Structure prediction request, 621 residues.
Amino acid sequence: MPLSISECLLRCAVLVSCCASCCASWAQAPRIDKIDPPGWWAGLPDPMLLVRGENLNGARFTLTGKDVALARTQGSDNGHWAFLWLSTSNAAPQTLGVTARNGQGEAHNTFVLAARANDPVAHRGFSSADVLYLIMTDRFANGNLGRDKAGYDRLSPRGRHGGDLAGIAQHLDYLQELGVTALWTTPVASNGDMHDSYHGYAATDLYVVDPHFGTLEDYRRLSDALHAKGMKLVIDLVPNHLGVKHPWVLDPPAPEWFHGTLPQHRGAKHDFYQLVDPHAPRQAWRDITTGWFTDAMPDLNQENPLVSQYLIENALWWVETANLDGIRLDTFPYVGRGFWHDFHAALHAVYPHLTTVGEVFNRDPEITSFFAGGVEHGGIDTGLDTPFDFPLYFTLRDVLANDEPMTDLAKILRRDALYPHPERLVTFIGNHDTTRFVTAAKGSRPRLKLALGLNLTLRGMPQIYSGDEIAMGGGEDPDNRHDFPGGFAGDAHNAFTQAERTATEEEVFAWTAGMLAMRAAHPVLQTGMEQDLFADKDDFAFVRSTDGLGCAQDHRSERLLIVVNKALQSRPVELPTEDTALAGCTEFHPLKPAVGEEPNLNGSKLLLQEPAETMTVYQVR
Prediction:
Protein backbone atom coordinates (compact mmCIF):
# COMPACT_ATOMS: atom_id res chain seq x y z
CA MET A 1 0.00 0.00 0.00
CA PRO A 2 1.47 3.42 -0.93
CA LEU A 3 2.38 5.73 1.93
CA SER A 4 0.34 8.87 2.60
CA ILE A 5 1.98 12.30 2.38
CA SER A 6 2.00 12.55 6.18
CA GLU A 7 3.67 9.12 6.55
CA CYS A 8 6.28 9.96 3.94
CA LEU A 9 7.09 13.30 5.54
CA LEU A 10 7.21 11.72 9.00
CA ARG A 11 9.78 9.15 7.87
CA CYS A 12 11.78 11.98 6.32
CA ALA A 13 11.60 13.83 9.64
CA VAL A 14 13.03 10.81 11.47
CA LEU A 15 15.83 10.59 8.90
CA VAL A 16 16.62 14.31 9.26
CA SER A 17 16.74 13.95 13.04
CA CYS A 18 19.05 10.95 12.83
CA CYS A 19 21.34 12.71 10.39
CA ALA A 20 21.46 15.77 12.61
CA SER A 21 22.44 13.63 15.60
CA CYS A 22 25.18 11.90 13.63
CA CYS A 23 26.56 15.15 12.28
CA ALA A 24 26.61 16.62 15.75
CA SER A 25 29.03 13.89 16.85
CA TRP A 26 31.68 15.31 14.51
CA ALA A 27 32.36 18.98 15.15
CA GLN A 28 32.39 20.97 11.93
CA ALA A 29 32.62 24.60 10.96
CA PRO A 30 29.34 26.52 10.90
CA ARG A 31 27.54 27.30 7.65
CA ILE A 32 25.02 30.05 6.94
CA ASP A 33 22.58 29.24 4.14
CA LYS A 34 19.79 31.77 4.57
CA ILE A 35 18.79 34.73 6.71
CA ASP A 36 15.19 35.86 7.26
CA PRO A 37 14.43 38.62 6.66
CA PRO A 38 16.90 39.00 3.77
CA GLY A 39 17.37 42.68 4.61
CA TRP A 40 16.01 45.50 6.76
CA TRP A 41 15.78 49.28 6.93
CA ALA A 42 17.30 51.94 9.11
CA GLY A 43 14.58 53.50 11.22
CA LEU A 44 12.33 50.44 11.40
CA PRO A 45 11.97 48.52 14.69
CA ASP A 46 14.97 46.42 15.70
CA PRO A 47 14.85 43.16 13.73
CA MET A 48 15.07 39.56 14.84
CA LEU A 49 16.99 37.47 12.31
CA LEU A 50 16.34 33.78 11.75
CA VAL A 51 19.51 32.16 10.43
CA ARG A 52 19.36 28.79 8.70
CA GLY A 53 22.45 26.68 8.21
CA GLU A 54 24.54 23.90 9.73
CA ASN A 55 26.53 23.55 12.93
CA LEU A 56 25.10 26.74 14.40
CA ASN A 57 24.62 25.26 17.88
CA GLY A 58 27.47 26.41 20.07
CA ALA A 59 28.67 28.89 17.46
CA ARG A 60 29.45 32.42 18.59
CA PHE A 61 27.82 35.10 16.47
CA THR A 62 29.27 38.55 15.93
CA LEU A 63 27.92 41.57 14.10
CA THR A 64 30.05 44.20 12.41
CA GLY A 65 28.78 47.66 11.56
CA LYS A 66 28.55 51.19 12.90
CA ASP A 67 26.14 51.96 15.75
CA VAL A 68 24.73 48.43 15.72
CA ALA A 69 24.82 45.69 18.32
CA LEU A 70 23.92 42.05 18.68
CA ALA A 71 21.61 42.10 21.69
CA ARG A 72 21.25 38.33 22.15
CA THR A 73 21.18 35.01 20.33
CA GLN A 74 19.38 31.69 20.60
CA GLY A 75 20.16 28.49 18.71
CA SER A 76 18.32 25.26 17.98
CA ASP A 77 19.57 21.99 19.48
CA ASN A 78 20.25 20.44 16.06
CA GLY A 79 22.35 23.39 14.91
CA HIS A 80 20.17 24.21 11.92
CA TRP A 81 18.72 27.47 13.25
CA ALA A 82 19.76 30.53 15.20
CA PHE A 83 17.85 33.62 16.26
CA LEU A 84 19.75 36.91 16.35
CA TRP A 85 18.27 40.06 17.92
CA LEU A 86 19.86 43.17 16.45
CA SER A 87 19.91 46.69 17.85
CA THR A 88 19.79 49.09 14.90
CA SER A 89 17.71 52.02 16.18
CA ASN A 90 20.63 54.47 15.99
CA ALA A 91 22.23 53.07 12.85
CA ALA A 92 22.48 54.69 9.44
CA PRO A 93 21.96 52.67 6.25
CA GLN A 94 24.90 50.29 5.71
CA THR A 95 25.89 46.72 4.97
CA LEU A 96 26.41 44.69 8.11
CA GLY A 97 28.55 41.62 8.54
CA VAL A 98 27.18 38.52 10.26
CA THR A 99 29.69 35.91 11.40
CA ALA A 100 29.19 32.51 13.05
CA ARG A 101 32.37 31.06 14.55
CA ASN A 102 33.33 27.89 16.41
CA GLY A 103 36.55 25.98 17.03
CA GLN A 104 36.45 24.42 13.56
CA GLY A 105 35.99 27.58 11.51
CA GLU A 106 33.62 30.37 10.69
CA ALA A 107 30.94 31.45 8.24
CA HIS A 108 30.27 34.95 6.99
CA ASN A 109 27.26 36.64 5.47
CA THR A 110 26.17 40.18 4.79
CA PHE A 111 22.96 41.86 5.85
CA VAL A 112 21.86 45.12 4.26
CA LEU A 113 20.35 47.82 6.44
CA ALA A 114 18.88 49.98 3.70
CA ALA A 115 17.50 53.50 3.57
CA ARG A 116 13.72 53.69 3.48
CA ALA A 117 12.22 54.84 0.20
CA ASN A 118 9.71 57.20 1.87
CA ASP A 119 7.64 57.14 -1.30
CA PRO A 120 4.91 59.79 -0.90
CA VAL A 121 2.39 57.70 -2.86
CA ALA A 122 2.96 54.52 -0.82
CA HIS A 123 1.35 53.17 2.35
CA ARG A 124 -1.77 55.28 1.82
CA GLY A 125 -4.29 52.69 2.96
CA PHE A 126 -7.69 52.11 1.38
CA SER A 127 -11.07 53.47 2.40
CA SER A 128 -14.70 53.67 1.36
CA ALA A 129 -13.56 56.13 -1.32
CA ASP A 130 -11.82 53.22 -3.08
CA VAL A 131 -12.97 50.24 -5.12
CA LEU A 132 -11.02 47.01 -4.58
CA TYR A 133 -10.49 44.52 -7.41
CA LEU A 134 -9.57 40.90 -6.56
CA ILE A 135 -7.33 38.97 -8.94
CA MET A 136 -6.32 35.32 -8.60
CA THR A 137 -2.89 35.70 -10.18
CA ASP A 138 -2.66 32.26 -11.78
CA ARG A 139 -6.00 32.72 -13.55
CA PHE A 140 -5.86 36.33 -14.81
CA ALA A 141 -3.22 36.71 -17.53
CA ASN A 142 0.10 35.19 -18.64
CA GLY A 143 2.39 38.11 -19.44
CA ASN A 144 5.75 36.36 -19.60
CA LEU A 145 5.63 33.21 -21.71
CA GLY A 146 9.40 32.88 -21.41
CA ARG A 147 9.03 32.08 -17.72
CA ASP A 148 6.45 29.33 -18.20
CA LYS A 149 7.32 26.17 -16.33
CA ALA A 150 6.75 22.51 -17.00
CA GLY A 151 3.51 21.20 -15.60
CA TYR A 152 1.21 24.05 -16.59
CA ASP A 153 -2.13 22.60 -17.61
CA ARG A 154 -5.02 24.93 -18.34
CA LEU A 155 -7.37 21.97 -18.69
CA SER A 156 -6.78 20.98 -15.06
CA PRO A 157 -9.21 22.85 -12.76
CA ARG A 158 -6.76 22.64 -9.85
CA GLY A 159 -3.57 22.85 -11.86
CA ARG A 160 -1.34 25.82 -12.58
CA HIS A 161 -2.46 27.77 -15.63
CA GLY A 162 0.40 30.26 -15.95
CA GLY A 163 -1.00 33.62 -14.90
CA ASP A 164 1.68 35.91 -13.50
CA LEU A 165 2.48 39.37 -12.17
CA ALA A 166 3.58 40.57 -15.59
CA GLY A 167 0.16 39.63 -16.94
CA ILE A 168 -1.52 41.79 -14.32
CA ALA A 169 0.79 44.72 -15.04
CA GLN A 170 -0.05 44.55 -18.73
CA HIS A 171 -3.76 45.07 -18.05
CA LEU A 172 -3.81 48.00 -15.65
CA ASP A 173 -5.43 50.16 -18.32
CA TYR A 174 -8.35 47.73 -18.28
CA LEU A 175 -8.70 48.18 -14.52
CA GLN A 176 -8.67 51.94 -14.92
CA GLU A 177 -11.22 51.77 -17.70
CA LEU A 178 -13.46 49.76 -15.39
CA GLY A 179 -12.99 52.30 -12.61
CA VAL A 180 -11.28 50.39 -9.79
CA THR A 181 -8.74 52.18 -7.60
CA ALA A 182 -7.08 49.38 -5.61
CA LEU A 183 -5.85 45.89 -6.46
CA TRP A 184 -5.82 42.83 -4.21
CA THR A 185 -4.02 39.77 -5.54
CA THR A 186 -4.07 36.33 -3.96
CA PRO A 187 -0.83 35.55 -2.03
CA VAL A 188 2.47 36.05 -3.87
CA ALA A 189 4.73 34.16 -1.41
CA SER A 190 6.29 31.02 -2.84
CA ASN A 191 4.31 27.79 -2.58
CA GLY A 192 7.20 25.83 -4.08
CA ASP A 193 6.05 22.55 -5.58
CA MET A 194 3.02 22.19 -3.31
CA HIS A 195 0.51 20.09 -5.23
CA ASP A 196 -2.46 22.06 -6.58
CA SER A 197 -1.24 25.19 -4.82
CA TYR A 198 -1.78 27.59 -7.72
CA HIS A 199 -3.85 29.72 -5.33
CA GLY A 200 -0.93 30.73 -3.12
CA TYR A 201 -2.34 29.90 0.31
CA ALA A 202 0.21 27.19 1.26
CA ALA A 203 3.53 29.01 1.51
CA THR A 204 6.86 27.23 1.57
CA ASP A 205 8.96 30.42 1.83
CA LEU A 206 7.50 33.63 3.25
CA TYR A 207 10.28 35.83 1.83
CA VAL A 208 10.28 34.75 -1.82
CA VAL A 209 7.82 35.57 -4.59
CA ASP A 210 6.47 32.36 -6.09
CA PRO A 211 8.58 31.79 -9.24
CA HIS A 212 5.43 30.76 -11.11
CA PHE A 213 4.26 34.36 -10.71
CA GLY A 214 7.58 36.10 -11.29
CA THR A 215 10.20 37.75 -9.13
CA LEU A 216 10.33 40.28 -6.33
CA GLU A 217 11.28 42.88 -8.93
CA ASP A 218 8.14 42.01 -10.88
CA TYR A 219 6.08 42.64 -7.76
CA ARG A 220 7.82 45.95 -7.12
CA ARG A 221 7.27 47.00 -10.73
CA LEU A 222 3.57 46.18 -10.39
CA SER A 223 3.37 48.33 -7.26
CA ASP A 224 5.18 51.21 -8.97
CA ALA A 225 2.96 50.96 -12.03
CA LEU A 226 -0.19 51.03 -9.92
CA HIS A 227 1.01 54.03 -7.93
CA ALA A 228 1.92 55.85 -11.14
CA LYS A 229 -1.72 55.51 -12.17
CA GLY A 230 -2.99 56.68 -8.79
CA MET A 231 -4.00 53.15 -7.77
CA LYS A 232 -3.14 51.08 -4.70
CA LEU A 233 -1.82 47.58 -3.97
CA VAL A 234 -3.11 45.25 -1.25
CA ILE A 235 -1.17 42.09 -0.34
CA ASP A 236 -2.80 38.87 0.86
CA LEU A 237 -1.00 37.51 3.95
CA VAL A 238 -1.64 34.21 5.75
CA PRO A 239 -0.25 34.30 9.31
CA ASN A 240 -2.45 31.35 10.30
CA HIS A 241 -0.75 28.51 8.43
CA LEU A 242 1.85 27.33 5.91
CA GLY A 243 2.15 24.65 3.27
CA VAL A 244 3.13 21.19 4.48
CA LYS A 245 6.29 21.29 2.32
CA HIS A 246 7.73 24.27 4.16
CA PRO A 247 11.15 23.25 5.64
CA TRP A 248 9.94 24.13 9.13
CA VAL A 249 7.43 21.28 9.13
CA LEU A 250 10.16 18.64 9.36
CA ASP A 251 12.69 20.87 11.07
CA PRO A 252 11.06 23.56 13.25
CA PRO A 253 13.39 26.38 14.32
CA ALA A 254 12.23 26.15 17.94
CA PRO A 255 10.00 24.00 20.15
CA GLU A 256 6.25 24.63 19.83
CA TRP A 257 6.68 26.41 16.50
CA PHE A 258 3.41 24.82 15.37
CA HIS A 259 0.21 23.83 17.08
CA GLY A 260 0.85 20.10 17.14
CA THR A 261 3.06 18.15 14.79
CA LEU A 262 2.71 16.52 11.40
CA PRO A 263 1.74 13.11 12.85
CA GLN A 264 -0.25 14.48 15.78
CA HIS A 265 -2.47 17.54 15.43
CA ARG A 266 -6.09 18.56 15.64
CA GLY A 267 -8.18 19.67 12.71
CA ALA A 268 -9.57 23.18 12.86
CA LYS A 269 -13.16 23.64 13.96
CA HIS A 270 -15.33 26.45 12.69
CA ASP A 271 -17.96 27.31 15.30
CA PHE A 272 -17.02 30.95 15.82
CA TYR A 273 -19.81 31.41 18.36
CA GLN A 274 -17.48 29.69 20.83
CA LEU A 275 -15.01 32.55 20.40
CA VAL A 276 -17.72 35.16 20.95
CA ASP A 277 -19.25 33.44 23.98
CA PRO A 278 -17.57 34.79 27.17
CA HIS A 279 -18.83 31.74 29.06
CA ALA A 280 -17.46 29.08 26.69
CA PRO A 281 -14.86 26.68 28.16
CA ARG A 282 -11.43 26.64 26.60
CA GLN A 283 -12.01 23.25 25.02
CA ALA A 284 -14.93 24.73 23.03
CA TRP A 285 -12.79 27.23 21.15
CA ARG A 286 -9.28 25.75 21.41
CA ASP A 287 -9.46 23.84 18.13
CA ILE A 288 -10.52 26.97 16.24
CA THR A 289 -7.27 28.78 16.93
CA THR A 290 -4.96 25.76 17.30
CA GLY A 291 -6.35 23.28 14.77
CA TRP A 292 -4.83 22.71 11.33
CA PHE A 293 -6.93 24.21 8.54
CA THR A 294 -6.17 21.09 6.48
CA ASP A 295 -3.61 18.31 6.91
CA ALA A 296 -1.58 20.05 4.19
CA MET A 297 -1.64 23.41 6.02
CA PRO A 298 0.21 23.23 9.36
CA ASP A 299 -1.04 25.72 11.94
CA LEU A 300 1.53 28.21 13.21
CA ASN A 301 1.71 28.86 16.94
CA GLN A 302 1.41 32.63 17.22
CA GLU A 303 1.41 32.32 21.03
CA ASN A 304 5.12 31.51 20.71
CA PRO A 305 6.89 34.93 20.88
CA LEU A 306 9.45 33.79 18.29
CA VAL A 307 6.73 32.88 15.78
CA SER A 308 4.83 36.07 16.53
CA GLN A 309 7.83 38.31 15.96
CA TYR A 310 8.78 36.44 12.79
CA LEU A 311 5.29 36.92 11.30
CA ILE A 312 5.05 40.59 12.28
CA GLU A 313 8.46 41.30 10.78
CA ASN A 314 7.47 39.45 7.64
CA ALA A 315 4.47 41.77 7.21
CA LEU A 316 6.63 44.84 7.80
CA TRP A 317 9.15 43.55 5.26
CA TRP A 318 6.57 43.07 2.51
CA VAL A 319 4.95 46.46 3.12
CA GLU A 320 8.28 48.29 3.03
CA THR A 321 9.75 46.25 0.17
CA ALA A 322 6.82 46.73 -2.21
CA ASN A 323 5.46 50.06 -0.90
CA LEU A 324 2.14 48.41 -0.16
CA ASP A 325 -1.02 50.27 0.79
CA GLY A 326 -2.97 47.58 2.59
CA ILE A 327 -3.16 43.98 3.74
CA ARG A 328 -5.88 41.38 3.36
CA LEU A 329 -5.61 38.90 6.24
CA ASP A 330 -6.66 35.33 5.52
CA THR A 331 -8.52 33.05 7.97
CA PHE A 332 -8.68 35.82 10.57
CA PRO A 333 -10.71 34.10 13.36
CA TYR A 334 -8.35 31.11 13.41
CA VAL A 335 -5.59 33.22 15.00
CA GLY A 336 -5.74 34.43 18.60
CA ARG A 337 -6.75 38.01 19.40
CA GLY A 338 -3.51 38.67 21.28
CA PHE A 339 -1.42 38.16 18.17
CA TRP A 340 -3.68 40.40 16.08
CA HIS A 341 -3.38 43.16 18.67
CA ASP A 342 0.43 43.01 18.57
CA PHE A 343 0.44 42.67 14.78
CA HIS A 344 -1.64 45.79 14.23
CA ALA A 345 0.13 47.80 16.91
CA ALA A 346 3.46 47.15 15.18
CA LEU A 347 2.15 47.79 11.66
CA HIS A 348 0.23 50.96 12.52
CA ALA A 349 3.13 52.37 14.53
CA VAL A 350 5.26 52.35 11.37
CA TYR A 351 2.50 52.89 8.79
CA PRO A 352 -0.33 54.87 10.42
CA HIS A 353 -2.37 55.01 7.20
CA LEU A 354 -1.95 51.36 6.21
CA THR A 355 -5.29 49.52 6.15
CA THR A 356 -6.07 45.90 6.97
CA VAL A 357 -9.15 43.86 6.10
CA GLY A 358 -9.82 40.47 7.66
CA GLU A 359 -11.58 37.41 6.28
CA VAL A 360 -14.31 36.36 8.73
CA PHE A 361 -16.38 33.94 6.66
CA ASN A 362 -19.66 34.05 8.57
CA ARG A 363 -23.11 35.44 7.87
CA ASP A 364 -23.86 36.68 11.41
CA PRO A 365 -22.85 40.31 12.19
CA GLU A 366 -22.48 39.27 15.83
CA ILE A 367 -19.52 37.18 14.69
CA THR A 368 -17.94 39.51 12.12
CA SER A 369 -18.21 42.59 14.35
CA PHE A 370 -16.50 40.69 17.18
CA PHE A 371 -13.22 40.81 15.23
CA ALA A 372 -13.37 44.46 14.15
CA GLY A 373 -10.81 46.76 15.71
CA GLY A 374 -11.81 49.71 17.82
CA VAL A 375 -13.46 47.74 20.63
CA GLU A 376 -12.13 45.32 23.23
CA HIS A 377 -13.42 41.80 23.79
CA GLY A 378 -11.80 39.86 26.58
CA GLY A 379 -9.69 42.94 27.20
CA ILE A 380 -8.12 42.77 23.73
CA ASP A 381 -8.67 45.00 20.69
CA THR A 382 -7.57 43.21 17.49
CA GLY A 383 -6.70 46.51 15.83
CA LEU A 384 -8.23 45.28 12.55
CA ASP A 385 -9.33 48.23 10.42
CA THR A 386 -12.32 46.30 9.09
CA PRO A 387 -13.63 42.83 8.33
CA PHE A 388 -15.15 41.88 5.00
CA ASP A 389 -18.93 42.28 5.05
CA PHE A 390 -19.86 38.62 4.73
CA PRO A 391 -23.30 39.18 6.31
CA LEU A 392 -24.22 41.60 3.51
CA TYR A 393 -22.77 39.19 0.93
CA PHE A 394 -25.01 36.38 2.15
CA THR A 395 -28.02 38.68 2.28
CA LEU A 396 -27.53 40.00 -1.26
CA ARG A 397 -27.42 36.38 -2.41
CA ASP A 398 -30.58 35.61 -0.44
CA VAL A 399 -32.67 38.48 -1.76
CA LEU A 400 -31.47 38.60 -5.36
CA ALA A 401 -30.48 35.02 -6.19
CA ASN A 402 -32.86 33.12 -3.90
CA ASP A 403 -35.76 35.58 -3.94
CA GLU A 404 -35.96 36.21 -0.21
CA PRO A 405 -37.74 39.49 0.68
CA MET A 406 -35.87 42.78 0.35
CA THR A 407 -36.81 43.45 3.97
CA ASP A 408 -33.95 41.06 4.82
CA LEU A 409 -31.56 43.62 3.34
CA ALA A 410 -32.94 46.34 5.60
CA LYS A 411 -32.64 44.00 8.59
CA ILE A 412 -28.99 43.16 8.00
CA LEU A 413 -28.10 46.83 7.51
CA ARG A 414 -29.69 47.60 10.89
CA ARG A 415 -27.04 45.36 12.45
CA ASP A 416 -24.45 47.99 11.48
CA ALA A 417 -24.94 49.21 15.05
CA LEU A 418 -22.69 46.31 16.15
CA TYR A 419 -19.64 47.67 14.32
CA PRO A 420 -17.35 50.45 15.55
CA HIS A 421 -16.97 51.61 11.92
CA PRO A 422 -19.61 50.16 9.58
CA GLU A 423 -18.60 52.69 6.93
CA ARG A 424 -15.28 50.83 6.57
CA LEU A 425 -16.82 47.43 5.82
CA VAL A 426 -15.63 45.87 2.56
CA THR A 427 -18.72 44.80 0.62
CA PHE A 428 -18.82 42.24 -2.19
CA ILE A 429 -21.10 39.90 -4.12
CA GLY A 430 -18.54 37.11 -4.53
CA ASN A 431 -14.90 36.13 -4.30
CA HIS A 432 -12.57 33.24 -5.13
CA ASP A 433 -14.11 31.07 -2.39
CA THR A 434 -17.75 31.39 -3.47
CA THR A 435 -19.86 30.44 -6.44
CA ARG A 436 -20.10 33.15 -9.07
CA PHE A 437 -23.10 35.39 -8.48
CA VAL A 438 -24.53 34.99 -11.97
CA THR A 439 -24.47 31.21 -11.54
CA ALA A 440 -26.15 31.44 -8.15
CA ALA A 441 -28.78 33.66 -9.79
CA LYS A 442 -29.43 31.01 -12.46
CA GLY A 443 -27.83 33.09 -15.19
CA SER A 444 -29.93 36.22 -14.62
CA ARG A 445 -28.11 39.27 -15.95
CA PRO A 446 -30.66 41.71 -14.45
CA ARG A 447 -30.13 40.23 -10.98
CA LEU A 448 -26.35 40.36 -11.44
CA LYS A 449 -26.58 44.03 -12.40
CA LEU A 450 -28.76 44.76 -9.38
CA ALA A 451 -26.24 43.03 -7.12
CA LEU A 452 -23.35 45.00 -8.63
CA GLY A 453 -25.36 48.20 -8.39
CA LEU A 454 -26.18 47.71 -4.72
CA ASN A 455 -22.59 46.76 -3.96
CA LEU A 456 -21.45 50.06 -5.49
CA THR A 457 -24.03 52.31 -3.80
CA LEU A 458 -24.47 50.95 -0.27
CA ARG A 459 -22.18 52.15 2.56
CA GLY A 460 -18.70 50.67 2.73
CA MET A 461 -15.87 49.98 0.30
CA PRO A 462 -16.91 47.73 -2.59
CA GLN A 463 -14.78 44.82 -3.78
CA ILE A 464 -15.22 43.22 -7.20
CA TYR A 465 -13.97 39.72 -8.00
CA SER A 466 -12.24 39.64 -11.36
CA GLY A 467 -14.72 38.45 -13.98
CA ASP A 468 -17.94 39.44 -12.22
CA GLU A 469 -17.89 42.64 -14.28
CA ILE A 470 -18.24 40.54 -17.46
CA ALA A 471 -20.74 38.03 -16.04
CA MET A 472 -18.31 35.14 -15.67
CA GLY A 473 -20.06 32.04 -14.36
CA GLY A 474 -18.85 29.26 -12.12
CA GLY A 475 -19.95 26.91 -9.38
CA GLU A 476 -18.09 25.73 -6.30
CA ASP A 477 -14.28 25.87 -6.07
CA PRO A 478 -12.50 25.37 -8.46
CA ASP A 479 -15.24 26.06 -11.02
CA ASN A 480 -15.36 29.66 -9.77
CA ARG A 481 -11.73 30.21 -10.81
CA HIS A 482 -11.82 30.11 -14.60
CA ASP A 483 -9.18 31.96 -16.62
CA PHE A 484 -10.02 35.50 -17.62
CA PRO A 485 -10.81 35.40 -21.36
CA GLY A 486 -8.05 37.02 -23.36
CA GLY A 487 -5.39 36.67 -20.71
CA PHE A 488 -3.78 33.59 -22.23
CA ALA A 489 -2.41 32.65 -25.63
CA GLY A 490 -4.95 30.82 -27.74
CA ASP A 491 -8.05 32.21 -26.00
CA ALA A 492 -11.12 32.30 -28.24
CA HIS A 493 -11.75 35.97 -27.53
CA ASN A 494 -10.36 38.86 -25.51
CA ALA A 495 -12.69 40.33 -22.89
CA PHE A 496 -10.12 43.00 -22.03
CA THR A 497 -11.23 44.90 -25.14
CA GLN A 498 -14.68 46.20 -26.02
CA ALA A 499 -14.34 45.04 -29.61
CA GLU A 500 -14.01 41.38 -28.60
CA ARG A 501 -16.38 41.15 -25.66
CA THR A 502 -19.54 39.17 -26.18
CA ALA A 503 -22.84 41.05 -26.02
CA THR A 504 -23.43 39.79 -22.47
CA GLU A 505 -19.92 40.67 -21.34
CA GLU A 506 -20.21 44.18 -22.76
CA GLU A 507 -23.66 44.74 -21.25
CA VAL A 508 -22.48 43.92 -17.74
CA PHE A 509 -19.10 45.64 -18.17
CA ALA A 510 -20.75 48.84 -19.38
CA TRP A 511 -23.18 48.77 -16.44
CA THR A 512 -20.39 48.20 -13.91
CA ALA A 513 -18.09 50.83 -15.40
CA GLY A 514 -20.99 53.28 -15.58
CA MET A 515 -21.90 52.72 -11.94
CA LEU A 516 -18.26 53.12 -10.94
CA ALA A 517 -18.04 56.36 -12.90
CA MET A 518 -21.15 57.55 -11.06
CA ARG A 519 -19.56 56.57 -7.76
CA ALA A 520 -16.39 58.50 -8.60
CA ALA A 521 -18.39 61.59 -9.60
CA HIS A 522 -20.56 61.66 -6.48
CA PRO A 523 -18.60 61.63 -3.20
CA VAL A 524 -21.71 60.82 -1.16
CA LEU A 525 -21.56 57.30 -2.63
CA GLN A 526 -18.05 57.03 -1.21
CA THR A 527 -18.21 58.68 2.19
CA GLY A 528 -21.80 59.86 2.72
CA MET A 529 -24.18 58.58 5.36
CA GLU A 530 -26.88 56.08 4.44
CA GLN A 531 -30.55 56.50 5.35
CA ASP A 532 -32.82 53.55 4.53
CA LEU A 533 -36.33 54.73 3.66
CA PHE A 534 -38.39 51.76 2.51
CA ALA A 535 -38.32 47.99 2.06
CA ASP A 536 -40.90 45.36 1.19
CA LYS A 537 -40.79 42.01 -0.57
CA ASP A 538 -39.47 43.36 -3.88
CA ASP A 539 -38.35 46.94 -3.34
CA PHE A 540 -35.68 48.78 -1.39
CA ALA A 541 -35.04 52.54 -1.27
CA PHE A 542 -32.31 54.47 0.49
CA VAL A 543 -30.54 57.83 0.43
CA ARG A 544 -26.82 58.60 0.44
CA SER A 545 -26.12 62.13 1.64
CA THR A 546 -23.65 64.23 3.56
CA ASP A 547 -26.11 64.42 6.47
CA GLY A 548 -29.63 63.38 7.36
CA LEU A 549 -31.10 66.83 6.89
CA GLY A 550 -33.58 67.54 4.15
CA CYS A 551 -33.24 70.06 1.34
CA ALA A 552 -35.14 72.76 3.28
CA GLN A 553 -32.50 72.83 6.01
CA ASP A 554 -29.46 72.12 3.84
CA HIS A 555 -30.06 72.70 0.15
CA ARG A 556 -26.40 72.79 -0.82
CA SER A 557 -25.36 69.31 0.35
CA GLU A 558 -25.45 66.49 -2.15
CA ARG A 559 -27.93 63.65 -1.77
CA LEU A 560 -28.80 60.70 -3.97
CA LEU A 561 -31.91 58.52 -3.83
CA ILE A 562 -31.46 54.88 -4.87
CA VAL A 563 -34.52 52.75 -5.62
CA VAL A 564 -34.34 49.02 -6.42
CA ASN A 565 -37.12 46.80 -7.74
CA LYS A 566 -36.30 43.13 -8.17
CA ALA A 567 -39.82 42.09 -9.22
CA LEU A 568 -40.47 40.76 -12.72
CA GLN A 569 -42.96 43.58 -13.29
CA SER A 570 -43.03 47.32 -12.79
CA ARG A 571 -44.09 48.34 -9.28
CA PRO A 572 -45.33 51.53 -7.66
CA VAL A 573 -43.24 52.77 -4.75
CA GLU A 574 -44.43 55.43 -2.32
CA LEU A 575 -41.84 57.13 -0.14
CA PRO A 576 -42.63 59.49 2.72
CA THR A 577 -40.28 62.47 2.74
CA GLU A 578 -41.19 64.28 5.95
CA ASP A 579 -38.41 64.15 8.57
CA THR A 580 -36.11 62.29 6.17
CA ALA A 581 -33.10 63.26 4.10
CA LEU A 582 -35.62 64.04 1.31
CA ALA A 583 -37.65 66.59 3.31
CA GLY A 584 -38.20 69.75 1.31
CA CYS A 585 -36.57 68.31 -1.83
CA THR A 586 -38.40 69.03 -5.09
CA GLU A 587 -36.08 67.94 -7.92
CA PHE A 588 -35.27 64.30 -8.72
CA HIS A 589 -33.09 63.68 -11.77
CA PRO A 590 -32.16 60.10 -12.82
CA LEU A 591 -28.46 59.51 -13.35
CA LYS A 592 -26.91 57.30 -16.00
CA PRO A 593 -26.60 54.35 -16.23
CA ALA A 594 -29.27 53.77 -13.55
CA VAL A 595 -32.02 55.69 -15.32
CA GLY A 596 -35.66 55.04 -14.47
CA GLU A 597 -38.86 57.03 -14.71
CA GLU A 598 -39.30 60.55 -13.32
CA PRO A 599 -41.09 60.49 -9.94
CA ASN A 600 -44.07 62.56 -8.85
CA LEU A 601 -44.06 64.60 -5.67
CA ASN A 602 -47.43 64.81 -3.91
CA GLY A 603 -47.10 66.85 -0.77
CA SER A 604 -44.82 64.94 1.57
CA LYS A 605 -45.02 61.74 -0.49
CA LEU A 606 -42.81 60.77 -3.42
CA LEU A 607 -44.52 58.48 -5.92
CA LEU A 608 -42.43 56.34 -8.26
CA GLN A 609 -43.10 53.63 -10.82
CA GLU A 610 -39.97 51.50 -10.79
CA PRO A 611 -39.50 49.27 -13.87
CA ALA A 612 -39.01 45.52 -13.48
CA GLU A 613 -35.63 44.29 -12.21
CA THR A 614 -34.04 47.72 -12.27
CA MET A 615 -32.23 50.23 -10.10
CA THR A 616 -32.67 53.97 -10.45
CA VAL A 617 -30.37 56.56 -8.92
CA TYR A 618 -31.79 60.08 -8.56
CA GLN A 619 -29.83 63.24 -7.92
CA VAL A 620 -31.93 65.15 -5.43
CA ARG A 621 -32.26 68.89 -4.89
Q: What stands out?
A: The radius of gyration is 27 Å. Confidence is low (pLDDT under 50) at residues 13-25.
